[in-house]
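Session log. Operator J.P. requested a structure for one protein chain; no other inputs attached. Running the standard single-chain path with token output.
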Amino acid sequence: MVYFILISYIAITFLGSLVGVKRKTTTPEGYFLANRNLGTLTLFFTILATNFSAFYFLGFAGEGYRVGYPYYTIMAFGTGFACLSFYILGTKIWQLGKTEGYITPAELIYDKTGSKTLRFIYASVMIIFTFPYLALQIVGAGYILENITNGDIPYLAGAVLLTIFTIIYVLIGGMHSVARTDLKQGILMIVLMLAGVVLISNALGGLTSANQLVFELKPELFNRTGAENNYTPQKWFSLLIFWLFCIPTFPQIFMRFYIARDLKHLKQSALLYASIPLVISIFPIIIGVLGHITYPELSGKAADQILPMMLVEHTPEWFAALVMTGALAAFMSTLDSQLLALSTIATRDFYMVFTSKKPDLQKQVSVGKVWVIVFALVGLAIAYQPFDTIFDMGKLAFAGLAVLFPVTFSILRLGGVNNSFAVASIVVGELLLLGFFYGWLPTTWLL
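Structure written below.
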């Protein structure tokens, strides 16, 4: 039954990615930006699905297990606040993309500043700090397939299988294929996670009774500061505003601002993005918290697998397979977007700039497809030895990209910035981030 569900899903997704792509993917705008023609629902779900990925299924559940319910408030409202970036940056990005024909983020930055150095640094940061988040999807796929098949498909083999499948349908359909797939995967993700919460809580005696039991075991999971007083007021403040800065600078999100059919559809998708995370963020966190009843002593990477472990333990085999297939859908919906965005940047901001002969439109698409494969292999290499937790992988990626926000905001909304200061802002910001993240700089320097 497990293999039947997996194979059926893969077949349906693959066939769906083929529909109508031949006439839509022969130019850079068609392949990379779906001809800038996405309506409200498709745009919203492709943004949602590319954000709520392995970090949502495994990272949220893992942090719910480790820290407790405070994580919901931070993630739900922090992510909801990010809808402001649709208005602050997204509307301006759409307008400029429509009138000037930009395809990558760094093309816009270069055109507005005239600085090749800033363009290369901006593009390089987007590529480098997307890698941990890209690898996170591959790691999640390995965990899921290992759990769902009871070890028949080991972690590394599962990671490789999902990566190969994602490469195939990205190569075939580009952004049009990605967006069509994201719409279906986003809906599937929400429905299955809700059903998973219902079945698991019922198996544990009902949601109220199960939470009462966890409260008796670990009352700190219900406190404002969470387990081990993890969430200080400073962390609350930082994480609530964090997503406003980092989400619009994800290359796959920045480029999605280009592909709205018009401003009305972009603004409508922003309203949906303000509300839907408030609902769906709680689902994996509930499962993570309830995991203390069945698995009371997990830590590190083991805690990141609490969601598939609870599904396997407390739901029918076919349903666990179905929900975890939905998780794989979410992983692919982010991985495909990241591969496409990074390949676009590598093609337009590096290959086209440094090649002596400007490639024609078809050549650009062909080169982009080669980069898809290259970046997928880099992600697999990182996934071979992943970070201690999925949350750590996400934090590094998100913070590294958030450093781009001040420069982006200054260029789009403040009439520009001195190029030397812009370069210094990014370089110094990234060096400080790496210094604090890896412990090279003392945390006493932080507020």
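Operator note: The longest helix spans residues 155-203.
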